[in-house]
Structure formats: structure tokens, C-alpha cells
Amino acid sequence: MAYAGGQAGGYTGGYTGGYTGGYTGGHTGYGDGDSQQGTIAPNGNSGKKGRGKGDGKKGKNGKGGGDRDRAQAWSGQGNVEALSGFDAMSAAASSYVKKAPKQVKAPAEMNAPSYEERNPYRLKNNIRAWHTDGSTTSVPDPYGTYPEAQLPRPLLESFRRAGFQAPTAIQAQVWPILDNGWDVIGIAKTGSGKTLGFLVPAYRWMTASYTAGIRTLILAPTRELATQIHDEASKFAGASGFSSACVYGGQPKREQLPAVRAGAPILVATPGRLNDFLEYKDINLSAVGYLVFDEADRMLDMGFEPQIRDIMKKVPRKRQTLMFSATWPEEVQNLAHDFLSSPIHVQAGNTSSLSANEDISQQVWMLNSSDDKDAALVEALQLYGGPRQRVLVFVAMKKQCDMVMRMLRKCQISANTMHSDKDQQQREEALHQFKTGETSVLIATDVAARGLDIKGVTLVINYDSANSTEDHVHRIGRTGRAGQKGHSITFLAKSGEDAWKAIGIAEVMQKAGCTVPPDMKQVVDRMLWKRQQSQQNDSRWDNLPKVLMVAEKPSVAKLIAEILSGGRMRFRKGQSRAVQIYEFNSWFPPAHQQCRIIQTSTIGHVFGLDFKDNRPKDIADLFHDPCKKTIEDGTAKNRIVEHFQELAAEADYLALWLDCDKEGENICFEVISLCENVPKDNIYRAQFSALTEPELRGAYNNLGRPDKLAAQAVDARQELDLKIGCIFTRLMTRQYLRYAVEKFRLRDQTCLSYGPCQTPTLWFCVERHKEIQNFQRQEFYKPKISVNVDGWPLEFDWLDGQTFDAGRVKSLQSRAQSAKQATVKELRTTPKTLKKPVGLNTVQLLKAASTGLGMSPVQCMKVAEHLYTSGYISYPRTETTRYSDTFDLHTALREQADHPAWGKTVSHLLRQGQIRNPKTGRDVGDHPPITPMKAAPRDEFSKGSEWRLYDFITRHFIASLMPDVEYEEKALIVNVGGEEFAYTYHEMRERGFLFAMPWKSKDLNLNEIDWKLPRLAPGSRLSVEELWVESDFTKPPDYLKESELVALMDKHGIGTDASIPQHVENICNRNYVMVCGPGEDGQRGERIPKGGKKGKGKGKGKEKGGKGQGGEKPQSRHMVPTSLGLSFCAAFEELDAELCRPPIRAYMEKQCSQVAEGILDKEDVVNENIKLFETKFHSFRGRLSQLDKFFVSKDQIGNSMGYRGGGDWGGGGGGGGGTWNGSWDGGGYGGKSRGGGGGAKGRGRGGWH
């Protein structure tokens, strides 16, 4: 059988032969055999040709049999059998549901109890306050004035200087409650003074009882709100006597920690960043006695519930807890029930229905189309703006921010932007300029819609309408704050999505007493009538079959729904706030009838992988741990499992629109495991390579089946990477981490990480370092002459180039100097051709981005994913470089014909009419090459990196359809004293694709002359004016380029096109390698830290990252091993070189690919590789003490035995405690945490590689 042949002969011949032969031998593991033709599967294509002996049995046949497996796996089995091999997914989903905490609702918290309010202040200010535990004790009366509150004189004077006359309604009621020690739930609109509502009682409590450490903890959902609270606290720090510190994401932790350690008793934090500090025990919350949740609803909207619950485990139970929120949904009620003790519920204003501040005058401008918005914005600013006005403009997308800003600046209106693509420093600078009046207009996305309190905003303009009426209210709530009057203008188109949104906005305006304009009322009446008709139609469609369609990202789900519904879809919410649901009716081909389509999405992987027994007595036992699937943190916090189970309960069909690669297939089966009640025969798979209307409609009309074998290949790789990486990492971390931290001065190092992909990747970098260190310099000589040709001196090079023989050079000089003339021998002409590029695949893209654009592989793929989901390029993960015969080249080119940068080149190419589908390249059978999907000018991109990558992809595509470059290399050869010299120049015959890729001209290093060389017959004599010899020393190579590393990984099978970027990132994150600019003479260049800021480094490299001397990123990025990386690699070379060299991983990757092809069985592959690595592990561990010299410094040797102990260790190591998923490697295999960080796809690809 093919498998037996592959196992017996392929492993020893492929792996051993490849290893000993310097990776030139094959590691395929294929057995010899006859090819067989696969059968035609139902609803599928005919099988591919087999490449091994096949007996037609599962896992034992050749490639053709593998295709039969795919068909059989879906066509002849029931649900249980079709999902065999994925039991762990179903078990994890079932276990998660069983363990999910039951939602407890406290009736008293749901709504205000029926009681007669008698307090005059509460009646006047529309305040309701009650005990949530049903207590009949009276609620403390409000402080109507500052004297009633008995504020300390310094604080009172500060308030008066700030212009505060009396407490706001929420302040007046919560202050006395908090002064009496009660917990509080405060529900009030934004801008109601909640910040001082919780700060003033905190000052009182801290004054009354002094304790060292952080005493007041304030949690906020966004960095903008956190910094705003911190600013407010800092404003009154002198008067109160209490300073504050603030920690949030987006800035280095080392810059925030000193303020905390300086002893600030108030800490303002976002949950994610605070958890980072708590994980490394940099912050201690044991002294916290006053805890505040601000904008609690927003925190839950953003999925922070798991982080909040983790934080609560570190806070003392004896504390006073406050929860403030603008709304009171069920999730916030549950959180309050869990963490507050018999709180008093305070409701300021009417929160039962959505309403806007009555101090805001609202206007709606109805526009004929979205194209009228720019003119309307300028008109609005001319009417209501001005140098002393502060205008906040909201747009829907980040890229529109910059486009609108440029438009306003052209109109001489000062404007700035704030959105999530800006780093924290840029956002803070934009806010500062806006607050100080340096810019009068701030253009923002919804990142600024909640929590920000910018005093003096006189006008809010909704350039794009908000996604919901609730968001609209929060947007316009940025003006009219603290009792001031405000104004808002919303632009709405009379048709499309805006017309539906007009209904909710009109209702908000009417409640606030604002006039609804007649043209808006007409639109609202028309849409209300349509809604009524739709509801009547819906009742007729209630009995239609329902199809649940699942994409990988919310943005892709929305795009699919828009295209397939023709824009006629309905939006509704489900269990998860992170993903949306779109509904529409459509003909569903597999059902052969009209169906109700329910479109939603995941947010990447649903499951991770972990050990069942994470703390065995002997860590070697983990090799045989059965492992378990676990629900990812992101999945849990966003309620993805509940979301799918609820939707699947009403679905008759399931159509999977996950990304079309092996990882996407694996996620398909994760989704299937959550939708177990959908019949197996009703589960379909869409195959697409671009998010364009033709591609998506084609996929919808030609649905296939999920690929079980591809999904199993991913599972095999996950298990191998988890076990092998984890076990070796635990061993090395336990034994040498403490020594390494001290020896190499790496304070933040948390593990010594090994990975079967990561370590060979490091090995490539170390090998180049060794080559540099072992380089022996040699002096070489290059004779040259100057010959007079037609009155002009030309420099001729020695035809042999150079020599290391000094005696030969001396003899040449003697003979040539005696010959005063040069004899013409010939004019030699050599035709040269530079082939046009083949189609662009992922590896080529990564190499080009690193070398020419200064982008790391991870950054490149992140940008490429964003371009893909935005519809600018096709799917960016592919190995194929050949265009398919069905690819419409002319249409793709015509799309670019009017582009301002390359439109002329494309138009000329189209006019020639000689476009042919290139036959070069390689078809791997996955996705087509990466191509542009639509034309976009520079101004359409908010980030320079997006434009640079799009520019390269488009130019590469155009170049691949243009002629080759053809030129002639001409050499005038003369003889001087018996030695031949040549003058070389070039004549271009066809510039070809250089018009699209002009930078390639530099690579050719052509000498194109602008004068004509005179005709010289052989035997002609020319005067020799000078002879000289240039000498130099050979130089060592530069450190390995990142692009070279990617090419080596691809060549030797280390990782896949999808995982290579993460492997490269991992060796940098582990402090094994640093990225530097070009060096010189064996020295490394300037270090390029993350973020692009100028780094500290040695060497003579002139180009720097970020703001270096040249102000540009280096042309190339070089991988320089650190001392730790060199020691780590040397340690494995010492005990078992195979563990760090490429062949063993290349063989493993090949076997996983064969699982996907149906050649090998998943369990056989896992067991074989586990057996191999287990044997190596025991041998490695038995000689571990030999590695002391690499990690233990001389002054540590005396203490080494006392630290290590003698037994095996099976616990968490490194950071101590916890499961492996939460320790050193940034998570188990799966989800965003794999390998230390996710790709653009929302999932990491590489575990401990």
C-alpha cells in the first residue's frame, strides 16, 4: 500500500536522506505505485490523479482515493459519522453549555418598584431611587447644594473656580448614599456629571481611612474615557490631596507603570491593560476598597466581561462598589447582581425609552444622495462653525475621516481626525488640538461617540448616520453637556439604509421637542408603510425553509448579505453583540425553492486546544494526553456558542462561507459542531477567492461540501505543535529561565520557548550569523585600463574580473605597461531577457513587502487581509502563481485603465490587443494568484501601508501581463599585452513590464549610453592612456534578510504560506532575533523596534526604521540573532541537532499535507511523530546538565543545583501556576492567542512553532 511504502521507505529515505543531504533530498514519503483515477463524487468534481498505490480504503489510497474520501465522508454517512474525528469539538460545545452560569435576574433590579415619591428634589429632577434587596429603609435624601454635602473647603473652592454652582442630579443623589457606605447602581445619561459623582465620595472615604497602595479602582471601557477620568481626577488632585494614575492599551507598559509605583491611590484603567499588569504581578489590588465601573454597558458591548471577572478575583470582597451606565440591559443587570452587595438603584431621568438631551436642538438635512454630503458639510460649517466654535463630525469608516479632513482643509477649514488606526499619541494630540481650539473641527468614528467629555462642543454633525438610534443619541450627546445648550445636524439620504434610520431619528427628535422637517416626515411615512407591508409579507414567508449562512468575519457577512439580497435585507440582533444577523429571502439552489436566508459570522476560531491533564507528575506524560478542545476566550466573552446554537435551532440548511484554506475548513467543522441539529445532508460549503459580486454569486450558485480531510490536517498540526512545543518549552523554562533572565538581562522574558517550526526558523538566522563570524577576508585585485575611443576616455574592465593572485597581477601590469596600444578583438553582442513576473502568491508578497516596503510578514498579512475584506484585492493566502484559463484578464485590466498612477500603461496594453493568459507559473489547486479587484486612488486609503501594498499588488498584476524585458549586452573587447579587457554597455530592445515596475531597472544594473560607439574593425588600434589595479578585501555577507528567511522557510517546508509570518514574528517576540536595517562589513545595522521608532544599536547601517537619519524605513530588514537566540540554538545543536534543523519539521508538514490529500491517516501521522519526539525528549532530558554552559554564568554556577531540584516538573513553570493556555506562549493552540498573537484573520496560525 502507498501508506506502508511511505511510512517504511518514505520516512527513512525522505527524512534521513533529506537531513544528511543538506535538504536537497526529498522528504515526500510517497510509496511507488500506479496512478488511479478517482470517482466522480455526488455534487463534486472528479478525483485527481493518484500518486501512490491505492486500495480505495480510507487513508491508504493515493491522491485520487483521497478525493473519494472527501466525497464518501459526506455522501454516505449520518451526522455522527460525518463528524467523526471532530468529537472533541462537540464535547467542548456541550461541556461549555452545561457549565455556562445560569443567568440570574433580581426582580427588584429590573424596574423601579411601584412607590410614591415624596422627596421634592427627586420629584423635581425626575430621580428614582430604591433598595434592590426589597428593604423598606428610606433612601438617603439628596444633597441639593454644596453646603449640604459639606465638602472640604479646598474642594469646594476648586468647584467654584471651575464654574460649578450646585451638584448635578446624579451627584446630589449618589453622594449621600455612598457616604453611608451603600453600593450604588447609577443609571444616567452621558454628560450628567457621573465622574465627580463617584470621585467625591472616593476622596471622603480615602481621607477617613488611610492605607498604602491602590485604594480606589476605576474601570472604563476605552482609553479615551480612561484618560478623561484621569484628567478630571488630576484637576482636583491638589484640592483633594489624592493623585491618580492611568493605564490603558496602545502605549508601552513601561511608560505607565512608574506612575502606579509612585504610590497614586487612585488607579483608572481599561480592563485589558489592567489584566496585563495583573498577569505579571506588576500591580497589587489588595488594598482596593472603592471600586467603580464606568460605562458598564459599553464595557460589556466591547466584550470585556471575562477580563472584568478576572479582575474581580484580585479585589478584596470587603469593598464599596459602584456601577454607572447609560442603559440598563440584561447583561449589566447580571454583572451588578454578581458583584454588588444590596445596592441602591438610582435612576436619573427617563431611561426606559431612548431619548436625547432636550438642551440639544436637532436638525436633519435630507439629501438627494450621499454625493451631496461634502457640500452640505461645508455649508453647515459656514453657517454654524467659526474659529471659536468646536464642531465634532462623525463618519462611518476610518478611511473617510482622512478623506473628509483633506476636503475641509482644501476649503481652508482647520480639521483633524481621530479613529482607531491612529496610535494613542496621535489620538491624544488630536484631542488636545481640538480642546485648545487649535483645530475647530474634529472628524471621528464612533470611537469618540461615548464617554468623551469635551467641554464646549457647540455642534455635532453626523456626516454618516449612526448604525443604531441608540448610537445616534450617544453621538449627539457630545454637545449640550453640563447644562449648556448644543446643536446637532444629521445628513440623511432619501433612499437606502438612511431612509430606514430616519424612523428612529424622527422619534428621538419628537421626544426632545424638535421639529421633524416635512421632507423627512415624507420619508418616514413611506418607510413605515413599507415596514407594515414587509411584516405582512413576512407572515406569508414564515413557513419557508431557513438557511443559516456563516462567514468568518462580520464585515464579510454583511457584504455577502448585501450582494445576495440586492440590498433588501433586514438586520436583527442575536445572542452575541460581536456579530450581526442579516435576513432576506432568496432562491436557495440546493433546496430548489425560495428560502429565508439568515446570514451571520464567527470571529475566527471557536475552539482552542489544551491538555486534559495539565499538571502530570512527569511532563513526558503529556505526549500521551488525549487533549481537549476548549472554548476560546473571545468566543466565550462574545457568546458565539449561544449565538450559533440559537440560530441553528431554527435552521434547516447550513451554508459555510469561511475563508477557503485549511484553517477555514477547520473552522467549518467547528461551526458544524455547534449546529448539530442541522441534517448533515443539508450542510454546504461556498468556495470563493474574492469578495466581488460575480465571485460571491458564483459561489452561492455552486455550493459544494466541507473538506473533512483538510480540517483534520489542521487538527493534526495543532496537536503536534501543542505537545511538542509545550513539553520542550516547559523543560527548558523550568531548568534555565531564571539563569537566562539574569545572564542575558531580559527582565520581561517569561519562557524559553521551543517550537518545531519556530526553532528551525531561528536556525536559519543562526547559520548566517556563523557564516559571518567564520568569514576569512582575502585581498583581491581588479585590473582596469583607460582607452581613448574617438577622443573620449573609456574605462575597460579586465575580462577575468578579479584575482587573488598578486603575482599574476604584477606580471599583467608589467606586460600591459609596455604595450602602449590596445588591439580591438571584437564587439560581442549577447541577447538578454528578463522574464516578466508570474502571478503573485503569498510568499512572493511577503518577500517583496519586507525587502521593498519595510513591512514585517505579520504586518504585511494584516494589511493584505484588510485590503481583501475591503474588496480591493483577491484572497491573499495562496501558493498558486498561474492564472486559471477562466480568469477574465481584460475585465481586470479595464478596471485599472483610468487610474491616475498606471492608467496610461494599462490603456496602452489594452490598445495593443495582444493580452494572452500567461502559461507560466504553478497551479497548486488552491486560490488563484493575488490580484487587484477594483481601482482605487491614493486618497482612498487612510494608511500609507495599505496604499503601498495595494500599489505593489496592482503593478505586479499589470507587469505579469506585459512583455518580457529584452535588451542586448554589448562588450567591446580589446587586447593589451596579451590580456583582454572589455567595455560593456546595453541597448534596450523592449522595456516590457518595466513600465509597470520601474524599480526593477535598478536591479538590472544596466549601462545605457546616450551616444553611439564608433564602428571599430577587428585589429584596430586604440591608445591606452592609463592602467591601474584596484584592490580590496572580500566582505562577509550581511545578516539574513527577512525576505531570504521567508524563501528558505518556503523552500524547506517550514510552515505554510498562512503560518510563515507568525513563525517569523515568534522568534522576534521570544527575544531570539532582532530585526535590523542593512549593516556593513559584518556588522549589523540599526535595530528596527516595533512601532518604527528609532532604536539603539551598533553598527554602521545608515538606514533606520521610523524616524532615523534618513526619515525612511530601511530598504531591507535583516534577522540578527541575539545572545539568547545563539545560546538557545547552540544548546539544541549540542544535544540533538535534528530538533532545531529543518528536515524533521519539513517531513511533519509534508505528512500533514498528505492527511489533507487523503494519503495518510490523521491518527497515524500524530502517533508516528509523537513517538519520534518522545524518544528524542527522553534522550534530551537525560543529558540536560550539559547545557549549563549556554545559560548559566560563572557566578551562578555555585547556586544552580539548589534552584533546579531533582524531580520532573509538570506544572505551569515560567510565570508560575495557571494552565499552559494562560502561561508563557500567549495561549493554547487556537484563536487570537496562538503563538503570541492573531493574524488579520482573527486567529493565530502557529502555536509554539
Topology overview:
Blueprint: H1 2-20, H2 63-75, H3 79-82, H4 87-99, H5 107-110, H6 120-124, E1 127-131, H7 146-149, H8 153-161, H9 169-179, E2 184-187, H10 194-208, E3 216-219, H11 223-235, H12 237-240, E4 244-247, H13 253-261, E5 266-269, H14 271-279, E6 290-293, H15 296-301, H16 305-312, E7 320-325, H17 330-339, E8 344-348, E9 360-367, H18 373-384, E10 390-394, H19 398-410, E11 415-418, H20 424-436, E12 441-444, E13 457-462, H21 469-476, E14 486-493, H22 497-511, H23 518-541, E15 546-551, H24 554-565, E16 570-572, E17 581-588, E18 593-601, E19 607-610, E20 628-631, H25 633-637, H26 640-648, E21 653-657, H27 662-674, E22 683-685, H28 693-701, H29 708-743, H30 758-773, E23 779-789, E24 792-798, H31 806-818, E25 821-834, H32 842-852, H33 857-869, H34 889-894, H35 903-912, H36 944-960, E26 965-976, E27 979-990, H37 1000-1004, E28 1021-1033, H38 1042-1051, H39 1060-1069, E29 1073-1076, E30 1118-1121, H40 1123-1136, H41 1142-1157, H42 1162-1182, H43 1188-1191, H44 1200-1204
Parallel strand pairs: 2-7, 2-8, 3-5, 3-6, 4-5, 6-7, 9-14, 10-12, 10-13, 11-12, 13-14, 15-18, 15-21, 21-22
Antiparallel strand pairs: 1-8, 16-17, 17-18, 19-20, 23-24, 23-28, 24-27, 25-26, 25-28, 26-27, 29-30
Helix pairs in contact: 1-41, 4-27, 9-10, 14-16, 22-23, 27-29, 29-41, 29-42, 30-39, 32-38, 33-36, 33-39
